[in-house]
Amino acid sequence: MLTGTYVPGRSLVHRATPGLKLVLLAVFLVPISIWQTPLLAGVSAAVVLVGFAVARIPLRYLLAELKPLRWFLAVLVPYQWWALGLEAALQLLVGLVISVAAASLVTLSTRVSDLLDTVQRGLQPLRRLGVDPDKVALTVSLALRAIPVVRDLLHQTLEARRARGLERSPRALATPLVIRTVRHAERVGEALAARGYDD
Amino acid sequence: MPHIEFRGVSHAYGERRVLEGIDLELTQQRIGVVGANGSGKSTLARMVNGLVVPTDGTVLVDGLDTGKQGAAIRRRVGFVFPDPEAQIVMPTVAEDVEFSLRRTDLTQPQKSERVREVLERFSLGDHHDHPAHQLSSGQKQLLALASILVTEPAILVCDEPTTLLDLRHSRKVTQLLESLDQQVLLVTHHLDLLAGWERVVVIDEGRVVADGAAAEAISFYRRLMGA
Questions:
Q1: Separation between Cα atoms, residue B77 and residue B82, nearest integer Å
Q2: What digits encode the pLDDT tens for the residues B11-25?
Q3: Is A92 helix (H, G, I), strand (E, B) or coil?
Q4: At B97, which CATH number?
Q5: In this predicted structure, what is the pLDDT of residue B83?
Q6: Host domain of residue B33
Q7: Number of folded domains in chain B?
Q8: Whether A149 and B133 lie within 8 Å, measured CB to CB
Q9: Membrane-spanning residues where (chain A) (predicted)?
């Protein structure tokens, strides 16, 4: 999901409806989030790998999806080890990796627009409470689209900071990054208005 | 051809006046707009789509007032920005084109067919399911164009669409613009791209200072810029 990648295919996994995949994902994530044993972790990991094999999605796509987790885990796992011990740290590590892998199987085999249509339909009953499903779906898609854009802006800003010899200045990173991100958001808003999405 | 009309149009951002007393009737199929940075040409272009409403005067597109009938105007006028990155809102190429058709009455198979046709036409057929952010700058601009043109607007306004492109992709985009059936209003600094266009309007300090056939207008603009 983070890479915005969709791997086309006609497998059983691809043909399942996005709604069914989301429900199965939710059911799959509950046990591994609540209590985790080595046996359950092993079975869960096997289920995910079998899912990838059935979907015929090469594992390099899974690795690309897991890659962004490394910084998060690099901070969280040592903290968990220090606060709650090695077992809890390993449980967190294994649980997160399996959960993200399972979610990746869903997103890699489903177009984002199909997922959004499902979310949009699922939110229809909330219209009576003032929720606009169209806007929620659009917001989610814009948030997903913003991830690679902001990452590119970050790289460009880091390079510019280095070129000026200001590697150690947080201000030389934060100020231009925030300004460029806000400017990008303004441009996206203008482009959406130009496409008629201004109501 | 559609009919774009500026009647006594002036515009200011706060205290800064960017357009002053513009009267124009644009009926040609290929119209270029040139001017120095800050001359007001981008503001003028945005007015055609109703993105900017003039502080004085009116802009009419086929008789519709851009200040009062924004939704109808935007169905009629497509707009392409300099930076395609800001225009692409969906993660994959086909999804972004299909996003433009979300509010149409087309069935899903009709939408898919329309998307496929447009992507083939814009040489993006092989990138149907690719992540949009992995395209080159030139391909992103082609995708931005495809996403606008899939709705078949009567008018296409392009604000410096080749600014971020290399020469090859600039040529590709320009050739595509020249092949369109739509009325095209192109704002650009690349004067050679406008050779042979029916009409070129030169803007300087918020006013129209030349308006006519491409060769004469561009020649005037070069002299004005001391080039």
A1: 17
A2: 999 889 999 999 999
A3: helix
A4: 3.40.50.300
A5: 86
A6: 4-224
A7: 1
A8: yes
A9: 12-32, 39-59, 79-106
